[in-house]
## 1
Amino acid sequence: MVPESKVAFPYERQAMNGDEMPPGLDYPDQVTYLCFRMLYAQLRGGIVDRETAIREKRKIMQEYEGYKFVDQMGKRWADIIRQTDMARAAYRKSRTLQNADKLLQAIDGDVRSKEGGGQA
């Protein structure tokens, strides 16, 4: 086992054991799972030594964190676009202050509740 086995990746133990990839993982988790499964198999098989495995685990985790962040931001932006599209369509159908507020909220997020206010 790699000494840094504070498990930072949720499925690392399963990958370490060579288990089949769990269903429903998003793409960054799938790639990381396969990388860890291969790294641990190589460590067990003597293809890489412990120090190499530690260095490679660090690199895998750095890349994982970066790709996970990008994946989460992509999902967040897709959600914002979906919400603003719906609010824009509602405003185009009926140009009311209520629909304008909904559009602004979709663009800005739930800012009014954070700013402690009701309507401006």
## 2
Amino acid sequence: MLSTHIDTWQMTEPGKLLRTKIAMPALRPGEVVVKIAGCGVCHTDLSYFYMGVPTVQKPPLSLGHEISGVIVGGREDLIGKEVVVPAVIPCGDCELCRTGRGNRCLAQKMPGNSMGIYGGFSSHIVADARFLCLVGNRGATPLEHLSVVADAVTTPYQAAKRADLKAGDRVIVIGAAGGVGSFMTQTAKGMGAAAVIGIDINEEKLRTMTGFGADFVINPKGKSAKDVKELIKGFCKDRGIPANTNWKIFEVTGSKPGQELALALLSFVGKLIVVGYGTEETSYMLSKLMAFDAEIIGTWGCPPERYAEVLAMCLDGRIQLGPFVETRPMSRIAETFEQAHDGALNKRVILTPDF
């Protein structure tokens, strides 16, 4: 029998969590109940919890938008199906949705922000079945690991699509060892990039990326943009490839230093794709874009119709999840938030319900 309530960890106000129960909502046509297997902890959750970034639904609400689980209620033909719940759920009917840009649908909903009080740090969530990604045969990959597909992996994939990334391209990832950057690096290589340069200030994690998509890594700490360019030139000389043209640069940190370095590296017929979010302003002489015949592109989320492509990359090994995630019981949510906020986590944590 379907539960009459949802167990959940709610943010009652920024900085405060409460374990509680809320009523299971009445299902509308097309909706299903997903029993949550895992929910990833994202920097966005920390922004709401610690930094005062406002949510559309005012507290109390449950945070969490990287969700995988099993359908246990609603449409009979879907009961028992394993799914990934998209982090950005479009309306499906507006002009943006009809023209393939549903990831930026102005009526979109996001678990843990704008889907009422419901988010993934819970036992269950109700969602529109139209937009769920069916998992199918996942082999030995734990279902909870697939929760990070909903944001940390699909966001880089959408960024690569916005860059029109193709086999043989040359790529630079700034923030290459971070929670999203590590998947951006793998995605670029998995989509056929001929050369991937990873840039990050975390030396230990950066070196790891040489085994997960990065052909060359640079720690920019203490280095000028000119110094970084010289290192790139050296790599290109060894490879026999052009050093100053056609780079596709993905800025994943959202930090001002990361953005400034990305802009400094942007050159002839290059593309800079802004993936990371930050609040500081960065200046740039736009006439350089004209002189370079270059582009700066923003990217947001990923439309649900592309989730299956990303899932396939995760299940066939082009993108590795296991080395970059850690599972913990959801009862450790407060401790995990604190460690994530302090930068003390080496992997993306997935919280599994233990109510």
## 3
Amino acid sequence: MKQLVMIVAMFCAVSGFAQNKNAKATLEVDGICGMCKTRIEKASLNTKGVKYAQWSVETHELKLIYDARKTATDSIKQRILEAGHDVKGVKATDAAYATVHPCCKYRDTSVIDTHNGDD
């Protein structure tokens, strides 16, 4: 019986380390400007377990460090979608997209042109 308790205790200790507390991920997120950057990073960081979020205006890559014991990339994606930004393969709802500032309408080619200086 004592051996069984020891085996169960060891299994529980090992399985507790199975998930990474510093998991890394990169997501492709649509946006167009510095305000988008702030919104995307804030939505990510407001997800429990996210420790680091940096989005690039140029590459649209969101680099993340998060505690996989507390969250998953699907939860982070959902928070970004709720903030009005598309994540590769999934579009934000029209209602969520409508909440972004007019300067941030990344689906609108005329807005994109003004950010690129192609008036």
## 4
Amino acid sequence: MEIEKKFQLKALPDLSGYQKKEIEQGYLCTDPVVRIRKSDDQYILTYKSKVGIEPSGIVAQVNQEMEVPLHEKAYQHLREKVDNHLIRKSRYVIPLADGHTGELDVFHGVLEGLAFIEVEFESEEAASAFCPPEWFGDNVSMDKRYTNSFLSKCEDLTVFPKETK
């Protein structure tokens, strides 16, 4: 089960010392979510379905998630079939002082200028107790504009007020 919170950023931290992945992903379907992703040299097909509980408002989503590895040739074949745009982003894996890990996404292409961070939790209680670092901005966990499936449909960043990027 996936329990997560997403945050805007007050400012980008110095990212030079963190692990970085280059990601490309697209959606074959958004309800349920069927996604393909290339992360560096790994290729993955993901299926996400909503779990039979309502999120508490503390977390963005509670999903059942299944991942299946793909070969590059299968990824390329499915890549031609995605709806809308492929999302391109750099993901930085950032250890946080409280022991959690943040995944900071910096978007490219039509989403250039957008960045946010996501933290996954082992329980809703842990998500509720989370105290974000000072450099985190507003909690946007319940804002659908920060879902990758929504972002894959964006032509530009006009859906975001200037202060949220």
